[in-house]
Amino acid sequence: MGNEIFYTLFLIAFLLLGLVLRTVVKSSVQESVKHEFEIERQKMREDFEREMAAWQRKDKFRLAALDEKLRVHQKAFCLARELCRTIRSSEETKSNVLKRCEEFWDQNCLYLSNEARIKFREALMTYHIYDSYVESWKISKTRTELTEAFDRIMRLPDIIAKGTDLEAMGDEGQPSYGNKIMPDDSMIQAE
C-alpha cells in the first residue's frame, strides 16, 4: 500500500506539473502570438499611414495643378475674348494683343487642354494674318476663307471654356461665350 500511495502521489505531482507546464507553455505561446500580432499590426498601420501620406501629397499636387489649369484657362479665355473684340482694330492694337497672347503662350501653354492649345495657336496665326483674308475677299468676293478665318477666332472662347472640363463636373447648362455670328460687310475693315 505504501507503493500505491507513492505512485498516486507521484501521479498527482506529475499531473500537477503537467498542468503547470501546460499553463506556462500556453501562456508563453499566447504572449508570443500576441507580440507577433502587435508587430504585424504596427507594420500594417505604418504602411497604411505611409500610403495615406503619399496619397494626400499626390492629391494636394492634383488640386494645385487643377487650380493652375483653371487660372490659365481663365486668362486664355480673356485673351480669346480680346482677340474677338479687336479683330477689326488698328495694326498697333492688334500687335499689342498678339504680343500679350504670345507672352501668355510662352508662360502657360502646357496648362491648356490639348484642344484649347491647338485652337489657341491656330486662332493666333489666323488673327495675325486676318487682314490678308479681308484683302483676298475684296478681290475674289468669295467668303469661304474669310468666314473660316473669322470662325476660328470667334469659336476660341467656347473651346477654351470647354477645356476647363466644367461639363464633366456637372455644369452642363453653361452659356455660349463666343460670338457665333457670320462676318458681314460691316465687320470687315474698310480701307
At a glance:
The chain has 191 residues and is mainly α.
Question: What does this protein structure show overall?
Answer:
With 191 residues, the protein is an all-alpha fold. Helices cover 77% and strands 0% of the residues. The chain contains 6 helices and no strands. The radius of gyration is 39 Å and the shape is rod-shaped. The N and C termini lie far apart (140 Å).
List key phrases describing it.
about 75% helix, about 190 residues, rod-shaped, about 0% strand
The residue fraction in helices comes out at over 70%
Q: How much is the average pLDDT?
A: 82
Q: Structural class of the helix and strand makeup?
A: mainly alpha
User: What is the count of DSSP helices, taking H or I runs of 4+ residues?
Assistant: 6
Secondary structure: number of strands? 0
Shape: rod-shaped
Radius of gyration, whole Å = 39 Å
Distance between the termini: 140 Å
Oligomer: single chain
Instruction: Estimate nothing, just give the exact number of structural domains.
Output: 1
Into which percentage range does the β-strand content fall? under 5%
Largest sheet: none
What secondary-structure arrangement, pairings included, does this model have?
Layout (H helix, E strand, L loop, with lengths): L1 H84 L5 H18 L5 H15 L1 H11 L3 H11 L1 H8 L28
Helix pairs in contact: 1-2, 1-6, 2-3, 3-5, 3-6, 4-5
